[in-house]
Amino acid sequence: MRLYGSLWRNIHARGVPSRYLANMAVQRPCHVTVLGEQYLTDHMTNISPTIVSKLPLKLHTQPSHPLSTLRGLIESHFPSYTHLSSLSPLVTPYQNFDLLSFPKDHPGRSVTDSYYVNKDLMLRTHTSAHEVEVFGRGETKWLLTADVYRRDEIDGSHYPVFHQTEGARIVSANSTGMKEIEEDNERLAAHLEQSSIEIEDVPHLSPTNPCQPAHDPKHTELIAKNLKLSLNSLMLHLFAGRVGATAQNPLKVRWIEATFPWTTPSFEVEVFFRGKWLEILGCGVIYQPTLDNANVSNKLGWAFGLGLERIAMVLYSIPDIRLFWSQDPRFLSQFKQGEITTFKPYSKYPACFKDVSFWLPEGQMLHENDFCDLVRDVAGDVVEDVKLIDDFTHPKTNRKSLCYRINYRSMDRSLSNDEANSLNAQVVSCLRDRFRVEIR
Ligand code: DAH
After folding, report:
1. 256 and 162 in a common domain
2. Into how many domains does the chain fold?
3. Rounded distance, CA 259 to CA 269, Å?
């Protein structure tokens, strides 16, 4: 999961070329059908057929699916919370970004990073998109699990659809609310003290992770403490049994300062699992304007968001993110609702590498996410990996040439060289039609 925090901003700080090639194949005006409804397209439309086909699947609600078991495991840890899992993935950019105080120039808004039905409607890029709506309904303790959509590269750990669970708790900003939090903090701290967990913490507040002007720092400290205790205890619930944590070998959890537009102070949580620090979630004390937008100005509280695939991949030892979408009985029949078991890989079929090289029109760039969506539209889940292997600018003509290496490998069957050639020929022809590039 790429968090909408500091790390994400750094990734995007690398120079963004000024002119991306437009997809010439999008006819305007026309319609696109999404979840049975027709919508007008416009200059922002970039939702692809592959993505449209994923919308009804909701893997997190399919019984026995690893993502559904993981959702259940998280929900069972918060039994008194409202559990939501069927909100529509179609949201307005206003819900996804503005209501959460994303700056107007945030890179997440661009058509190269997010999927738009048209300028007024998009696929949620994170479950936080529903925060204002859910608080507005009067919910004060809730979890929401859903499919989210982001344009991305293609490899074994990135997929343009993934799943997140959002969790939040708000209380009245008065002595009654604070008493409720204090009592809960005592209960959680007592439980954690008896558990095999080692926590590397950061202060609840610091000059680089400050209290919001609207808040009393004492209240913020209590809320941040409740957030940390609640999530440390969730980490214990998810991981401790799996690593056989003991007093001598405790589960290691570390907290890191972060930045999110709709929380202050903000944090990220990492867990040490099978020899690596895994980035698990982002969280923080909810920015007061977010609660004002939901008409609950008299409350304060915390929120977190975690990505399910990354956690499920390590818990079940699932090596490739595409497997979650597999309909192969050899995959699906391995799992039972509520049980975490180690995935037994069935034979891995041979990889088939094909290169695609082309010249771009002068002064133009092709965004890697546009290239990857095109490859997915042609080859679906038969594409395992796409890598840029050459990027060359001709010294005289100043024209740019790119070469991508595509790894075609089915998860379910052996792919013949003829099939891979035919897929690659379709990629080439589609590339020519959509972006008017010159194949080399
Ligand atoms: N929505 C964030 C993302 O996808 C994750 C997140 C961070 C959710 C902080 C939160 C939060 O609720 O408080 O990157």
Report:
1. yes
2. 2
3. 13
